[in-house]
């Protein structure tokens, strides 16, 4: 009885022996061994589609360069080129099956790409998968290359592609905070330092600060993107360029720049570039900076929305789900909480990258797979975290205007706005009196004949309190010695 497509196999052989490979698989024996050896993460490299695309771009550029310099005939080069393009266009990604965490400095990933591209090309040529006498994964698809230049180059290109979507999402989140800043422009609130009442500001100013922070991170990430543009193609094993034609490096660089649209450049010292992974550490650090600052913003959102009755309760986060299996009506700030956890993971991934960079030895860092996985995961989780924060939280935030107004009205912090006119000593005495008696600061200032009602009203206007309107003129500082009395514990207050 003939075998069906799910059970038929083909035999492939490497230096260790032979294996049976599923007949319909585009990967081959090297990939099969890697799947057996590295059942670690249970996550195939295909989870990072931009890495798969970048691998195909490197193979496509190499095929074009090899054809150009005459080390690969036109028929084979064209087949590899067209097969790689199909992967760039999104086909066959499910065939990239090796685990993202692997030994061998990325060799298994490189061979997975070589085998898939080769077998796609063989199929396009009307030949059977595994017909490596006609087109070989190593002799042809991997011509002029080594894992040690292909893998880091593909990782850098993949990260550059992935970063674009992160930057797009980051800018959308920044704009969401800016929209809220405009919406909350005139809503006064009490500012806080060290969790203690400080001076008034507007809720719009607070949200504008969040937007500015994210805008700064957008700039830093954009700047650090250039760390990924230095590549070592042509270095082969350790940077000496063994097995390559002298014209290969400039040719493959030119083709890669055209294919990727990135301003790539060839490292001036290929030996150093092959062994050093410091650029990944710097790039990871910029992601951590963004994650930590985003987490701080989420901390603020949770504090500002705390309560709703016994907390600050200044803003309302959109209710997303029931918050308790035992307390009816409880709703938790689950969206900021999940973004906090993303930040913790990114910080941990950055530590992993740092240790992996340090662990490199002599002419190669064997730990680039965990570096790649850590950074790709950070970008992926941050992008998703920013999206859910924007769509499921920030866009729906509302202000508790009555509560905010009541807190500003009862705050002694407003007296700070009057210190240029009545002096610090009088302001301190009045603040203490207001705290002890619960009296309104404006009333106390007027009763003490330090300012008129009109003057107080002008200086305590929302625009002046929040700094939106600058103080352009000043009235002379009053002398409080005779008409301001420091309160005692009995509750005495300034008298007129």
TrEMBL record:
Residue ranges of domain Fumarase C C-terminal in the record: 415-465
Pfam families in UniProt: FumaraseC_C, Lyase_1
Record has ATP-binding as a keyword: no
Domain of life: Bacteria
Keyword annotations: Lyase
Domain Fumarate lyase N-terminal intervals: 18-348
Protein name: Aspartate ammonia-lyase
Lineage: Bacteria, Bacillati, Actinomycetota, Actinomycetes, Micrococcales
């Amino acid at each position: 009885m003939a075998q069906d497509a799910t059970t038929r196999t083909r035999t492939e052989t490497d230096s260790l022996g032979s294996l049976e490979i599923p007949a319909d698989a585009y990967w081959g024996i090297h990939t099969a061994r890697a799947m057996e050896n590295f059942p670690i993460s249970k996550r195939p490299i295909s989870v990072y589609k931009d890495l798969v695309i970048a691998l195909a771009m490197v193979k496509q550029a190499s095929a074009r360069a090899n054809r150009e310099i005459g080390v690969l005939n036109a028929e084979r080069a064209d087949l590899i080129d067209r097969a790689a393009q199909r992967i760039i266009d999104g086909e066959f990604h499910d065939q990239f099956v090796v685990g993202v965490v692997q030994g061998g400095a990325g060799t298994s990933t490189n061979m997975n790409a070589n085998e898939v591209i080769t077998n796609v090309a063989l199929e396009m040529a009307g030949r059977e998968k595994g017909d490596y006498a006609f087109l070989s994964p190593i002799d042809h698809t991997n011509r002029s290359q080594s894992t040690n230049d292909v893998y880091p180059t593909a990782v850098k290109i993949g990260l550059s592609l992935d970063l674009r979507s992160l930057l797009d999402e980051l800018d959308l989140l920044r704009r969401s905070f800016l929209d809220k800043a405009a919406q909350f422009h005139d809503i006064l609130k009490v500012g806080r330092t060290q969790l203690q009442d400080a001076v008034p500001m507007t809720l719009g100013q607070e949200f504008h600060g969040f937007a500015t922070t994210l805008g700064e991170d957008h700039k830093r990430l954009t700047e650090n993107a250039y760390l990924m543009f230095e590549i070592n193609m042509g270095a082969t094993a350790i940077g000496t360029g063994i097995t390559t034609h002298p014209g290969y490096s400039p040719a493959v660089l030119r083709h890669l720049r055209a294919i990727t649209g990135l301003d790539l450049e060839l490292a001036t010292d290929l030996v150093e570039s092959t062994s050093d992974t410091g650029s990944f550490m710097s790039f990871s650090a910029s992601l951590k900076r963004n994650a930590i600052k985003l987490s701080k913003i989420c901390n603020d959102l949770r504090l500002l929305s705390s309560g709703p009755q016994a907390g600050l309760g200044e803003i309302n986060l959109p209710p997303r789900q029931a918050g308790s299996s035992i307390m009816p009506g409880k709703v938790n700030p689950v969206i900021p909480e999940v973004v906090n956890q993303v930040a913790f993971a990114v910080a941990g991934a950055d530590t992993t990258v740092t240790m992996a960079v340090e662990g490199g030895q002599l002419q190669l860092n064997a730990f680039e797979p965990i570096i790649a996985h850590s950074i790709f995961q950070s970008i992926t989780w941050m992008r998703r975290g920013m999206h859910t924060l924007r769509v499921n939280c920030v866009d729906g935030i509302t202000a508790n205007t009555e509560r905010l107004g009541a807190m500003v009205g009862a705050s002694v912090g407003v007296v700070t706005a009057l210190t240029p006119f009545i002096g610090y000593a009088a302001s301190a005495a009045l603040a203490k009196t207001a705290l002890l008696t619960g009296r309104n600061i404006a009333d106390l200032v007027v009763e003490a004949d330090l300012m008129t009602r009109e003057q107080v009203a002008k200086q305590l206007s929302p625009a002046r309190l929040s700094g939106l309107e600058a103080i352009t003129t000043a009235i002379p500082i009053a002398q409080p010695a005779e008409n301001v009395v420091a309160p005692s514990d009995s509750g005495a207050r300034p008298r007129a």
